[in-house]
Every structure is written in structure tokens, then in C-alpha cells.
Amino acid sequence: GAGVSQSPSNKVTEKGKDVELRCDPISGHTALYWYRQSLGQGLEFLIYFQGNSAPDKSGLPSDRFSAERTGGSVSTLTIQRTQQEDSAVYLCASSWTSGRDEQFFGPGTRLTVL
Amino acid sequence: RKEVEQDPGPFNVPEGATVAFNCTYSNSASQSFFWYRQDCRKEPKLLMSVYSSGNEDGRFTAQLNRASQYISLLIRDSKLSDSATYLCVVNVIMTTDSWGKLQFGAGTQVVVTP
Q1: Which residues of chain A have a pLDDT value below 50?
Q2: Which of A68, B46, B52, B65 has its CA 20 to 30 A from that of A16?
Q3: Which of A51, A17, A16 has the alpha carbon at shortest distance from A31?
């Protein structure tokens, strides 16, 4: 079956612009996660959705970052007024439920802020 | 102290040799344990779950030691294709009525050489 998909695969933007990243989870998965990973670094948790609600937003680095999920499926991560330090790979993952189940990752969106 | 800690390596392993490494976790209530593999510039992929009694999947063996709060991964007869970063993943219970969330270690790099 189809895995987690993310778009775009690559995004180059200028400092100060807004960007929107999209994640389409595996059908039926109720939990959805956003992470980011800088080159050579580990995964940094950003936010987690259970259905359409976000019980844990603790990883969002600033108020420039926001995310939503609609219909219990697709999620968008929005970064406003991008900064160079936002450059990273943004990974989305989904799982059947939350907390204990293995997560399946999408291929990521590589964001470069010039 | 980090919730999940790993030796970053690299572990340089001759082809055909055995390599093993551990991961320690701090939350004694953790219930789920996994090893993921991440290739360079790729998304993490589930390698195997780790069960209380220990488990094997081909050349890979995972062990859980709850008393000392660590999990281990052993790779036998290493192949060049085993070169990757291995991520230790543990679910971390946040509150008494929560299933918690998965916490990813920063990874252990393994380099298999001809």
C-alpha cells in the first residue's frame, strides 16, 4: 500500500518568506508527527497530532511555526518569515495510534532558506 | 540527562565481522522499544521491534534489559549494505494516563569496510 508522502521534496526560499509543507499519512493512521533534522544531527520532534488535535506542540521552536491537520488525514506545517536556521529536512511520520506504535516516515522535505 | 542515549560511533567493522552496541533509556515505565535504520540523506526506516525476551531477525539480534534500562543491537556477518546510522527508539511515558510518545536517540553510526 501507499506509504507516507510529503511535498514538495525540495524547497528553496528566501529569508523572510513563508513556506508550507504537506504530509499525507498512511490511510487509517490516526497519529501524525512532524520532525526536523539538520545535517548530521538527530531527529528533533516538532509536533504530534492525534486525529485533528495536537496534544503535544512542545517541540515547535518558535511562534513562526504552526501546523494543522484536517479530516484526520493531511497535515500542513507552516513556517512564517523563514530564517536561515530553519534550513533542514522536515520529516513527517504516522502511526496507527499514539505513543507505543512504530512510526512510518515519509521521504521528507529538504528546506533551504537563502 | 537525555531520555535516550546512544554512542554516536562510528563503529568501523570489517565485512563479515560482528558488531554490537547499546542504547540506554531513562524512563523506567517505557513499554515499546524499536531499532530504526537511517541511511545517509534518507528517512528512518523500522529495522525491528525489541521484545522483552529478545528477538532475532536474520543477522540482527535485539535484546532488552529492563533492570539496567538498555537495549542492544547485534549485527552478525556484517555486509557493506549494513553501513548506516542505527536509531534507538523508546516510548516515553509523559503522564500516568498517557501512552506517551516515541523518543528517538541521536543514532549510532556503523561503517562496514571491505
Answers
A1: none
A2: A68
A3: A51
